[in-house]
Amino acid sequence: MAEPDTEPSDAPPAQTAIDEPGSRGSLVIKDRAIAKIATTAALQVPGVVSQGGGLTRFTGRELPRADVSTGTRSVAVNLYLGVHWPCDVAELTRRVHHEVGEQVENLTGMPLHQLGVLVAGTGPDTPGDSDIACPTPSPADTVTAPRPPAAAPAAVPAAILIALGLLGLAAVAARELLISRGTISGAPWLRNTFEWLGRLHWEQWLVPVALAGLVVGILFVLLALAPRTRTHVPLRADDGVATVWMRPVDVARMCSARAGTVPGVVSAHTTVDRRRATVHAITDAAVTGPDADNLREAVVGAVGDGLSLLGRPLKLRVKTRTDRKQARS
């Protein structure tokens, strides 16, 4: 009986069939997963904080959050962050770019084509956050108080008129130079004017002209020294340094919106000047007598809570009148 051949053979072994990844199915990474990777990576950067909770979880406004757009071979991410303040935002965003880009590429295998970082919220440093090495700006780059919004200087119209006058004088002087050199022909204006002035004698009309010139000169000096008009109203700040301003029209809209939330107010219109906010409220025809006084006090309370947010207090005046259409019907 022959023994089976157990000696090794020189023939190559049969090649095992290996399936390609594409033959087994496809890999799909949802945008939500990439957004979670991006926000988690951003939170690993010192200085980036998580803000949210409550209703923000349902509205999708919590921070950090990410909007992801996935292509066939790359990913684009818009990242919204909350950061500690004060903080060197430029240095922090560079760290976020590096950390998020590295994590997204390593975990998804897709290159990060574009990453936009938007600082959508800030929070003050707390004693529990003292161990966070948030990059802080250098003292030379620290801005203690931003410049408040203001209108254009009052001297702008006068400066424009003077500039136009100087340009006209330059054109006349150039004409005089060309005439003196014989390039063009014509009567010289400046020479004839100065000769006419030199032949003048004292006249009565010189007095009002001199006074008018004095008044105009003083007016130009006052316009140059006049401060610029404030165009916005600052909001109240805990440290006394205003960083957010509102336009008077925005203050008026806020007052009207708050007055409109009071039961019994049909509509409201507000006018705001530099010292006062006047609310004109149209009330329901059914509100009379003591109820009208109570309604007016309610409007004062609702609007006063909004005005208390301003850094510069405004006097509040509330005027009420009954809706005429309802009264006639």
Model description:
This protein is α/β, with parallel strands linked by helices and 329 residues long. Helix content is 40%, strand content 18%. It contains ten helices and nine strands. It has helices at residues 21-24, 31-43, 56-59, 89-108, 156-180, 189-198, 206-225, 248-260, 290-307, 324-328; strands at residues 48-49, 65-70, 75-85, 112-124, 233-234, 245-246, 265-272, 276-283, 315-322. Strands 1, 2, 3 and 4 form a four-stranded mixed sheet that branches. The chain has a three-stranded mixed sheet with strand order 7-8-9. Strands 5-6 form a two-stranded antiparallel ribbon. The longest helix is centred in the middle third of the chain and has 25 residues, at 156-180. The termini are far apart. The model is unreliable at 125-132 (pLDDT under 50).
Layout of secondary structure:
Layout: H1 21-24, H2 31-43, E1 48-49, H3 56-59, E2 65-70, E3 75-85, H4 89-108, E4 112-124, H5 156-180, H6 189-198, H7 206-225, E5 233-234, E6 245-246, H8 248-260, E7 265-272, E8 276-283, H9 290-307, E9 315-322, H10 324-328
Parallel strand pairs: 3-4, 8-9
Antiparallel strand pairs: 1-3, 2-3, 5-6, 7-8
Features:
three-stranded mixed beta sheet; 10 helices
Short description:
The protein has helices at residues 21-24, 31-43, 56-59, 89-108, 156-180, 189-198, 206-225, 248-260, 290-307, 324-328, and strands spanning 48-49, 65-70, 75-85, 112-124, 233-234, 245-246, 265-272, 276-283, 315-322. It is an alpha/beta fold.
